Every structure is written in structure tokens, then in C-alpha cells.
Amino acid sequence: MTDVLIRGARVLGESGADILVRDGVIAEIGSLGTPSDVRTVDADGLVLLPGLVDLHTHLREPGREDAETVATGSAAAAAGGFTSVLAMANTSPVTDTAEAAERVLDLGRAAGLVDVVPVGAVSKGLEGAELAEIGLMARSRAAVRVFSDDGRCVADARLMRRALDYVKAFGGVISQHSQDPRLADGQACCHEGEWSGRLGLPGWPGVAEDVIVARDVMLARHTGSRVHVAHVSTAGSVEVLRWAKSRGIAVTAEVTPHHLALGTDLLAGYDPVFKVNPPLRPSEDQEAIREALLDGTIDAVATDHAPHARHDKEHAFPDAAFGMLGLETALGVVADLLVRPGLLSWADLADRMSSAPARIAGLTDQGRPIAVGEPANLVLVDPNASWTVERDASRSRSRNNPWHGRTVHSKVEATFLRGALTAYRGRVAPAGGALTLEELS
Amino acid sequence: MIGKHLLSSADLEREDIETILTTAASMHDVQRREVKKLPTLRGRTVINLFFEDSTRTRSSFEIAGKWMSADTINISAKGSSTSKGESLRDTVKTIAAMSVDALVIRHNASGACRQVSQWVDASVINAGDGTHEHPTQALLDAYTLRHRLGDLTGKHVVIVGDLAYSRVFRSNVITLATLGARVTVVAPPTLMPSGIGAWSARDGFATSWDLDEILYAGDPPDAVMMLRVQKERMSGGFFPTAREYTVGYGLTAERLERLYAVNPQIPILHPGPMNRGLEIAAEAADAGSSAILDQVSAGVAVRMAVLYHLLAGDQGAQS
Question: Taking burial as the number of CB atoms within 10 A of a residue's CB, which of A244, A247, A263, B95 is the most buried?
């Protein structure tokens, strides 16, 4: 029994309306009475958005269940307002076969809190040498459409060209971790610039990203295929993307909340929680990627949620693992940064965090308009809350949270997956189940 | 105010440096006595925790601790943490659990000492962290230079070599600037740290790619410090051959002769170990004005002074 009436929600931030959800589908929108057989969620003053879609999540299962599982990552996602996440392929074993992809799909269904969509590897074992079984993954029950060696760049131009050509047969897309491995030494652990110079940390220059983005858009043009640039972090990439889009090249791009909001000055204390790949960049880059997200040059926000066990972060900075948590804080961080100051509307935020990522990933029942007949994948947001991020309160199994201690304003009140309440006021449904309003009152 | 730790040269104000160098001078006198032992740190435990090989720095700290009557123990932890899968935090917590008063740490990773200082109760002394800093080296260099030149205010110190990978350079520019010296650092563009243009301006030192211009055109140097160049840099494409490096950036016999024509007393420094014939000619290393062995000798006195101020504090000063 998942029927529910959402009363008085500001749909996409506009005026209030009642939304009746029946059998997982939006049945009516308007000024509605209360049918006797449904529960009501009071959404007065809350903003209703389509459920968020994350193009870039690391769920660590199989292989590193001590850092995250599909179930704990799904819980973090639901708490953060997501109804679908794409699970990156760099697990152990790597998602480079149909069987591996179906396994992740099934783990996601068993958790039942968000649609977990497996990303397939581009190359076998992420080795960057031979194509993985891309076609079999596409034909599998998991129907994989997004392929990525994320964590590593598909550095070999010939392999990238073949991969782009090959995925055309089934409308696939290559999501590239753009970073020329030859433009920095193997120890690189932060942005190469003033801070890395001062701190004596080996860095990657921004140009290591720019040159791969430039190469890949030319390969996309040549092959007539689709390339997606994961976690854009530099002003140079933005320039290339702007040019490529003006020429009609099929390129899309995502940016993370941390690259939008966190800068290189955070490196000063050598806290590995701020060690991430691509690295945090200086303010010139941050300004460029913010502007690109606002004007649509960058299509989507993606979290690059990257949980790590505590002991993998408690090494010296260059030895510590790359990555930071992001699922539970993404909406609040982006809304605080861009919606509250009036730079981005709620409708545009819904585009960047739901519709655009769903479109890029080829998901047909996510990121849909809030309209009658559409699946009820929805998130209710309190835009005027004030909450402090507490790393120990996370649903993630890991604690590498760069937002710990920060005050955030927009807060997820409720998340609905096909009408089922997966998260409500800080509580998350048990795996395979949904919260009922009775147990919440 | 000298704090609990010495992690960066930036931790020390000018008066702190003066205090440490003054103490170091009296410690230096102790070194010349027949019986060199002071009771100051009796009952204190100082661990030299070296994650990276070192001969001179480790033995210098060890002697300094022993002459101050501390129980000094060396632990060579090279490759121990990550290769065994143990985190740095676990490694140092284990050692600090043995009621240690000070950890003198050398680590191949920049920032490791700062991280450790947040995990343990003991005082942490940075004995060289990656390519970040080496504050006691900068103090002993300052001690050596003051001994030769007096007050360093306005003195022109030229530092030449592999700046990108040098912790000695990063600490020296801070300490020398704090003492009022004018510093020019010289290296080929490939061995300059990234972003140095911005921070040199802010931190008040100059940079150049042209050694001869800095040595002979205009502002004559009062001291020259040569830094070790790793031979591996050649395979990394930072410069083509040793010969080419020496021609551009080595303190050759010819360059020394031209310097001596103006100032035959000019101190020549090198933190060691030297690549004779690469960054420094034998004629320069062994020159009459070379201060290289003075640096080593000052190292013990300066480290005694640092241990004294971090561990004995006011209580020690009275006794």
C-alpha cells in the first residue's frame, strides 16, 4: 500500500499543489480533497523535485564491503534524495562482464531503496588494453549503457576510438575519467599549483585533464558517437566543452558538488579527507565550472561518492586513498551554493540533478517531469532548514566526509521510489521495504 | 612563542629563532668541552622515527638527545607502514603508547609530521617530511650564516638547485626571510616548484633561471647555498645531462673564482650529501670559505637547542 497524497508541495519550487500518487504513479495533480484510503504527507513550504539521479557513485560491492555495500550506499542515496544511482565498475572483481553487471543489478534490487544501474568497464579489468565485454553487458538483464574505466583514464587513443565506435550499436556512451597519466608523476595526489608547490606535494596540472577532453571530443566527432566527461574540474575543459557543443559534437559532462564548492586551500592541513581525484582545484577553475553548470555547458551534477574505510585514509597524504562521500550532502551543497543565492532555479536544479543525468544514462523512468501518468520518483526538500553535517550520522559505511561540521540549509524531507517512501525526515526504509506513514507518526 | 611541536619553519617567529640560536651557541660551547653531557633532559624519552634513510640528520638528533641526557632511541620504519598495510596512524599510535616525550620524524611524504602531531600527545619534531620542509636544517643554516655574516638583515643569500623537490629550500626561504635576509632562488624552469611565482612574491623572495646573472650582475651575493640534485631527475626529463646541468647551474671552479674576485670570504653552504662535480665542484666544496662542515657541527647544537625549548621549557631554563 504505497498510495499517498503529498499536500501543498511547491512543484519545482513554484506554487503549491497536491499530488496524489497511486500504484507508484502520479495519478492527479491540483487542489485535491483527501481520499479516505490514502495517507497524507504535509508538504507545506516544501519543494517537490523529481528523484535525483547520480551518474557517478562508487558502491564498493563486490570487493570492499568494509567501505560500502550496495545496501548501505543505497540507504545513503535515498537519504540524499536519490532514486537512481549509477554504480561505477571499479569494484573487485571489476564490472567487465554481463554476470558481474547482473550481480550489481540484483544487489540493488534486493536493497530496493534506489534503482542501482551498473556501469560497465570499458576495458577488461580496467587495464586500458583490451575492450571489456561491452556488448554482452548491454544485452544482459542489466542493459548497461554507460561504460567507464573511472578511476583510470582510457589513455590509449586507439582503445578510446574503438570503444566509442562500438557502443554506437546500442546507443551506449563512454564516461571518461579525463586525466593524461603521462602529464604527472605516479605519486600525484593533488592539483599542481601554488599550494602543491608550497606543500611539497606532487600534483596533476589542470592541463592533464584538458588535453584528454580535447582529444575525446575530436574522437566523438570523428566516430559520431557519444562521450561523457566525468567530473569536469578545470576551466580548460569548460572551454573545450563550450566549443564542442557549439559545433554540435555529442558530448555531455558532469561536475561534482565538491569541485564546485571546495578549493585547494583545504590542502593546507594535509587532511586526506580532501584527497580526491580529480583533485580540488583553485578558485579560477571553480568559477569556470560553476558558470558552465549554470549555462548548461556542463549538463549534470554527479556525486562521485567514494567511500573508503577509515584505515585507508589514515595514511600520509600521498599514500591515502582518493575520494570523498557525497550522496547525502549533494542536494544541500548545490542548493546552498546556487539556488539560495538565486543563480539557479529549482527547475534548473531538477534538470541538472535528475532529468539531464537520466537522459545521459538512457534511463526512461527516472528524471521524468512531475506530471500525471509519470512514475512517482520524487523528492521533497525543505529549502529553509538548517542542519549540520555529522559524519557519524551517515548511512554510508564510511566516514570520509569533507562536509563534516558544515551547516547546510536545504534538507531532504522525503524520497519516494515509485511511490514507496524510501526516506523520511532522516529515517531510511529497511532494505527491500518502504516506510509507512504509520510507523513515522 | 615556541610551541609544542616544530612542524614547519613558519611555526617560528623571529624572536623564537633568536632564542633557539642563542641557546644553540651555548650548546655549541658544551660541544667543545671534554665532558659533553648536560642533565637537562634526564628521564625524557626521545624517539627518532625514521621512515626514510638518513645518516647525518638521524645521528645529529641522536647525539643531541644523548648530550642532553635524554633516552634516545632510533626506530627505522622504512617502508614499514604501507608495505605491511598498517596505517601511519596505527604505526605512530603504537610507538607513542610507550610514553614517549618527543617524536623526531623523518618521512618520505610531505605533511606526515603534521598529521602525526594530531594523533599523538608527544611533541613532534619534523626532521624532514617529503619535499615539504626541514626546519632544523634551516635553523642550522641560519646559525652557520650568522656565525659568518653577523645579523642577516639585508644580506643576500642565493639558493641554487633542485628546488621543486627540496625541503631544505622550502624551510630556508621561510627562516631566512623571517630573519630579514634577501633570498634569491635559482633553478632551471623544470626544477622550479609549481606556482612559485605567486608565493615567492607573497613570501618575499626572488626567483631566477639564470645563475650567472644572479651571481655577477648587480646585487652581489653574501652567501651561496647549493642543493643536491638527484641524478634520477635526468630520466624524468627535467634536464638532459649532468654536464648541461653543471654548465648552467653548478658552482664550478670558474664560478667560484669569479665570486672570490669580489668576496673571498663568501660562505658556501650545502646541506649534503653532495654530488661533487655535478652541483658543486670539489674546489668549491673544499674552498677556504666553505661552511659545509660548520653546518654539520652546528646541526648538533641547534638540535640540542630545539629539544631543550620544546621539552624542557621554562622549567629547564631555570635549572
Answer: A244
Sign of the C-alpha dihedral computed for residues A324, A325, A330 and A332 taken in this order: negative
Lowest mean pLDDT of A2-6, A8-12, A19-23, name the range: A2-6
Contact B194 A196 (CB under 8 A): yes
CATH of A52-361, one of 3.20.20.140, 1.10.760.10, 2.60.120.1440, 3.10.310.10: 3.20.20.140
Mean pLDDT, to the nearest integer, of A55-76?
98
Q: Hey, are the CB atoms on B194 and A203 less than 8 Å from each other? A: yes
What's the gap between Cα A126 and its chain centre? 20
ipTM, two decimals, is 0.91
Identify residues of A whose CB sits under 8 angstroms from chain B CBs: 185, 192-203, 205, 269-272, 311-312, 314-319
Residue ranges of domains in chain B, CATH in brackets = 9-133+299-318 (3.40.50.1370), 135-295 (3.40.50.1370)
Evaluate if pTM is beyond 0.90.
yes
Mapped onto helix, strand or coil, the DSSP state of residue A64 is: coil
In one-letter notation, the amino acid at residue B117 is: S
Alpha-carbon gap, residue B250 to A1, rounded angstroms? 81
Q: Using beta carbons and an 8 Å cutoff, which residues of B are at the interface with A?
A: 81-82, 87-90, 107-112, 114-115, 129-133, 164, 167, 170, 193-196, 198-199, 236
